[in-house]
Amino acid sequence: MFLLEFDHDSVREPSEKQAADLAATSEMNLRYGYFEARIFIAATGFETERLKSPLLDFAHCALLAAQNVSDGQPGRISFTESSLLIEFLPSGEGLTVLRSWDPVPGSCSVSDFLESAFRFSVEALSSIDERHPEFRRNAYHETLSHMIEEVNPASGR
Length: 157
Known about the structure:
By secondary structure, this protein is of the alpha+beta class. It has five helices and seven strands; from the N terminus they run E-H-H-E-E-H-E-E-E-E-H-H. The strands form two sheets. It has a four-stranded antiparallel β-sheet with strand order 4-5-6-7. The longest helix is centred in the last third of the chain and has 22 residues. It is globular, with a radius of gyration of 15 Å. The mean pLDDT is 94.
């Protein structure tokens, strides 16, 4: 079992200036300065934990981790604003989930992780698109959309 979700109601709205620049602002600004949210993570072996992080950065890191894991390599989600780290270590069809702040490991199947990372990222992008359609015109939107397609469990990658 692997859970990766965010609280849609907790997503911090951009300031007026940020909203006006949404179609043109940089990837860095979008990943680190917009849309902070409460994120929930759980795996077999540890209870649900709540984290606070910029939503697009977390989705980006989860997608990179999923790409690595689908290639049989370790994946990681790091937090730019702190030293926290979540690592995903593949072993056959299973994953060990390590969190830098807790010595208790978790586990899940590779498929559960890939499906959760995919679903989380699709929901994050859709949630922002619904509230801020102008975000679709930002070049980073296309980058994230491509990354999502790369880890789509239905694509047979």
